[in-house]
């Protein structure tokens, strides 16, 4: 089971595509640095850790101001 849930994550980032893209990019960064931004991560996998960072508000999408 995915923790945090997709519904909880979509409260932070509305688009599933954007959510997946950010998580994948961050997971690649974590492979090289292993510098997780959340304490006591529940996941041992990079994508899971990236999703936990998004849920914790450490990663976000900067909205364009028009």
TrEMBL record:
A biological process term (GO) from this entry: DNA-templated transcription
Cited function: Promotes RNA polymerase assembly. Latches the N- and C-terminal regions of the beta' subunit thereby facilitating its interaction with the beta and alpha subunits.
Keyword flag DNA repair: no
Entry keyword NADP: no
Source organism per UniProt: Lentibacillus cibarius
Keywords per UniProt: DNA-directed RNA polymerase, Nucleotidyltransferase, Transcription, Transferase
Record-given protein name: DNA-directed RNA polymerase subunit omega
Coiled coil: none
């Amino acid at each position: 089971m995915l923790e945090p849930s997709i519904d909880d994550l979509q409260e932070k980032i509305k688009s599933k595509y954007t959510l997946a893209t950010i998580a994948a990019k961050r997971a690649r960064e974590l492979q090289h640095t292993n510098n997780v931004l959340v304490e006591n991560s529940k996941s041992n996998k990079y994508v899971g850790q990236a999703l936990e960072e998004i849920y914790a508000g450490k990663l976000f999408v900067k909205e364009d101001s028009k």
